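Hi U.,

Before I forget, here's the chain from the pilot set. I'm dumping it here mostly so it's searchable later in email.
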Amino acid sequence: MRLLCQLTALLGVMSRPSLAKPHVLFVVIDDLGWTDVGFRSHDIRTPTVDTLASAGTVLDQYYVQDVCSPSRATFMTGRFAMHHGIVDWIPPSSTYGLPLNETTLANKFKEVGYATHAVGKWHLGFYRKEMTPTFRGFDSFYGFYSGGEDYFTHMSGGAYDLRRDNRSKCGPGCSQVASEGHGSYSTHLFTQAAQQVIQAHNPDVPMFLYLAYQAVHAPAEVPQSYIDPYAHTISDPKRRTFAGMLSCMDEGLGNVTATLKQRGMLNDTVIIFTADNGGPTTTGDGVGARNWPLRGGKHSIWEGGTRATGFVTGSMVPKGTFSHLMHGADWLPTLSSLAGYKLSNIPLALDGVDQWKAIGDPSRPAVRNSFVYGNSTNDCSWDGTAHPEFDALESIPCGFGIRAGDWKLTLGWGGGPDTWCNSTSSGPSCSNQTEQPGSCANPTNDCMPGNDVTHFTSNSSDECCERCGQTRGCAAWTYNFRDSASPVCYLKSTAGKPNKSDKCKSGVVDPIPPEESCLGRGFCLWNVQRDPNEHVEVSSQNPQVVAEMKKSMAMVLQSYNQYQTDPTCGAPVFEQDPVVGKAWAPWC
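Structure:
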């Protein structure tokens, strides 16, 4: 699989583009931490990423949502999560997805003559065929519909999830289970699929290729040959495996760019590189990512969960660093300046802004001054009575936040993890917690509704209880194993009224006291330009800033919208494949 390419030389001969509309390669890396790529970590070798970044513009103040589906929906629509409604990751058996009235990037590229292809992870819903990629503007799709799976077997929640959709609107009778991929590593498969798309493409036609790698999401799996080069440089075995996963992705991206070069397309290609959220650190889905010295990680709106690694590169992109504020919602309007599609005919209001001219000339004034984002793990109901002062909501730790200028204001708690800890050895390592977990009460067969701080898939009630004791703000927990394939742990700020159930176990812990005194006032403030690692809370010293940002956040959250499940659709019905057996497919 390995193809050696001299990417530095390859980029060094780039000339000005010859195609009227450039090709666009949009690369999404799953669960990438702030200090994982080589040009930041210096312990993991990512020569392709490093060279592409150094030849283009690194986005220094670039933000996404705190988990995968909301960010991917935002990339696709140019709209905030609380407006398109995908406010949390989508479990595979869910009867909802990106609403069908949303316009996608692929729809817009298609309008102006682009060939559009998607490879890799979708995770925007698939219970109906209309929610799958080739019904959302893509000419083809190869990858998995759900959010995570085994890298080799491609099993997710007890069923196989790897499909090939070879044409637009490829539903039943067209969509195929890609059973030949069973046993092959997904990073290799997705690289090869992207190369095949490029090799089959007419270079005179503009192309939009969305390449969403599974890497470096859990589980921690990679061929041993990628781990071995780190045997003497990374002592921590968890970080060493993670390094192999990331290096494999980097090699794959190098092979894709080499294929673009071979086809005479690289000079005419703009490459977008982005993480979908910060790296998971001390949470159960952490496999070695690091955000240190940033605080927190995936699942939280601390900087480590939402300030993402991203860059833009290509022959028409200047070298340097873009230090203005940017959000994942900006991609759809920004790419309109390259592709020439109209924004005025999109029926739903955009939250994104066109950053292309500013990226091309960083001396220009900032285009974006603020954005509102939210902790996807909270099910909050918003209405007009809460505007503009949140009177009815100040006691609810919803974890929404606003970034404006130098400031960051959060409504209540920013979510968990909220420390500077990692599960590996660089920076503070909290695998042996200095904050000892609280004592778990004997679990009872109850479900406790509401008051959620966060939730995540979990292997056992013991793990759920332990995590509650390690999470600031958690006082109770419920382990729900109603879906035996994907049991969920819910961490709660207070113990709710229990409901007897043989599908749940619940308990309480002695909570870790809140660190910030601001929680009693409902809002917390940081100056993230002076204090990017969020050590010093400053709301009491800046009441006017708090008041102004509260009003701005309330105006956005007044139109809060959250996904609704489809009551007409029942439990999943699986496709039966003669090679791999039970396979995921749309069932309604």
